[in-house]
Amino acid sequence: MRLSKPRIAPRERADLNEEELEFMSRFDEPWFNIFKTMANHPALMRRWLVFANHVLGKSTLPPREREIVILRIGYLCKAGYEWGQHVLIARAAGISDEEIRKIKVGASAPGLSELDRLLLQATDELHADAHVGDATWAGLAEYLSTQQLMDLVFTVGQYNLVSMALNSFGVQLDPGLPGFDV
Q1: Which CATH topology does 61-169 take?
Q2: How far apart are CA 115 and CA 153, in angstroms?
């Protein structure tokens, strides 16, 4: 975690008005700190969730590939909250702790499949240069459709943005979330 306490305090149930409570009721309780923090700006949260829901739930990328790039961008951004949430989601998508540790190493980690290596390489390139290089793109195009390639770029972008927000706002880990020590 970059900050040891929030810069923007998460809103608790008692702090919310009726409209905000109705909006927050769409989330299972206990509410995640990311949602309680975003409740400070309901209009932004409402609009951001449309895009976030596409990337997390309606993307053409299979869950395993999606989680590889989300974990990698979260790690590159040093976003402890993002990392912890998506370690749990990655495990549910069938990614082992050994594979999660390789994601931290990146494309040079031994024993990666070619697709996993390319996914990590693309994420690194987007993070470093806001561009996927020709060789990486051509390699990915052997495995992914045009829509999947587009969803890949938008997934990295979405979670880069979210990582910036989480780090800057000081969103703290929810109980039970792992840290970078996985």
Answers
A1: AhpD-like (1.20.1290)
A2: 15
